[in-house]
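*Target chain*
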Amino acid sequence: ITYSVKQDSIGNIWIASEEGVLKYNSKTIKIYNTYKGLPEQVSNRISELFIDSQQRVWVGMENGLCLLDKYKDSFQLLKSDIDINPSLVSTITEDENGVIWLGGFNGLWRINQNTLVVERVLENINIKSLFISNNNILVGSIKGLLIYNKDTKDTYDVVLDNKKPAIWFLGKSHSNIYIGTRKGDVYRLDKELKNTELIKQLNFPITDIIDGTKQNYLVATDGNGFYSFKKQDFSLINHVKEDVDNATSLNANGIYDIEYNKEQNTLWIATYGGGVNYYNYNKKPFNRFQHIINDKNSIATNFSRSIEIDSQGKIWFGTTKGISIWNPKNKKWKQIN
């Protein structure tokens, strides 16, 4: 099972999976696991992977955070400033000063740049998402949204319509920050982090919000397809969901990831159970990649969780049965499992 796919500056593809970390350099595949490359005291389940501005590779797991030692070609478990490590790491990010921050089941953590010790900043909070805005860190948790100021070390809750809903998504477009909840509400937060506005109530968990074309935002949900909204006023352009009587419609409503390829003017959608759907704005109908029994030139399975488009235009899909790579040039698949 693949959770994250990232590419570094020299073209290596890094993959976080249920059975360790994979590195693919277009010729060979290297697997880092507890037999070789990962510390013996951790598990092979890598829940998050992050490549920072220095091209360092960080991996978060059930019981700690590791950093790749390029000279030893192995991951080293970072020490914690307390007796416990970060657990069930769900998100890793970097601020403007190069400091690494991570969130997980047992709080908000940061990396001391001098000692590489993991320091816990906030405890008793189950974090699902992080977003950094200047000196503030927005923390999305199952018990609401809060803001941590890095300078003053103060925290305060952001109340959304007198509620503290579970936060599933945090992201930015233009000068606004968008917040997606498990309940399906979409909020907009201004750049001063003072005013919030309820934009939409979609009634299904928000999994992604991205810029689409020049005219629209795209909002993906887990259970009700995705929406297209005008950038100008967030008015509805289209609601795209499964239609069992239409062979060219979206064929699954559970969406884990959505990516827009500007060069190809194509939208890629990773679904749960429906394979990978794609929409070419120049040709209009939806198409799909689905697993074909006993056919290696097809996607490995119809359950896909993540998408990454590499520097050569190849499209990587993280699935529940490894990695499937689609090459648009020769229209062939390659499997890594």
